[in-house]
Amino acid sequence: QVQLVESGGGLVQAGDSLRLSCAVSGRTFSTLNMGWFRQAPGKDRDFVAYITRSTRPYYVDSVKGRFTISRDNTKNTVYLQMNSLKPEDTAVYYCAADSATNPTTLSRAYDYWGQGTQVTVSS
User: Fold this and answer.
1) Residues 6+ apart with CB under 8 A from 95
2) What is the pLDDT at residue 1?
3) From 63's CA, which of 18, 53, 85, 91 has a CA 20 to 30 Å away?
4) Nearest CA to 66 among 110, 10, 121?
C-alpha cells in the first residue's frame, strides 16, 4: 500500500517562505511522477507543480519563479519550496503520486494522495 505523508505547512506572513515535504512509502519512489495540488475553501483542487521521474519540473503560471519542486530519491521524498508567499496561496496542499508513463496536471490521473497540509498566508 502506497502512503504519502505531507509536512511543513503553517501560518506565515506575505513574503515569507515555507518548504513542504512529502514522504512516500510502499512503492519504488523513483518510478513515480510526483505532483503538488492545492485546494482553497470552496474551490476545486488545483494543480501547482509536478516533477517527473527524470526530475523535470513543471509549474502552474501563478507560482512560476516563486515555487520550486524537487525530489530526493534516496529519501523517497518530494519537496515544494515556496517563496514570496501571497495570501492567495492560502490552501490545503496535497502531494500526489502518478505511476503512468507521461506526467499530467490532471488530479484525476493521480493514483495516490496524501492527507494534505494547511498553508495560511496572512497579509
Assistant:
1) 4, 6, 20, 22, 34, 35, 36, 37, 78, 80, 113, 114
2) 84
3) 53
4) 121
Q: What cell does 105 get?
A: 496536471
With beta carbons less than 8 A apart as the criterion, state whether 70 and 78 touch. yes
Looking at the chain, the number of H-run helices and the number of E-run strands are 0, 11
Q: What angle do CA 94, 52, 10 make, to 5 degrees?
A: 25
Distance CA 12, CA 113 (A): 25
Residues shown for the chain: 123
DSSP states along 6-33 = EE--EEEETT--EEEEEEEESS-GGG-E
Cell numbers describing residue 117: 497540509
Dump pLDDT digits (tens) for 4-23: 999 999 999 999 999 999 99
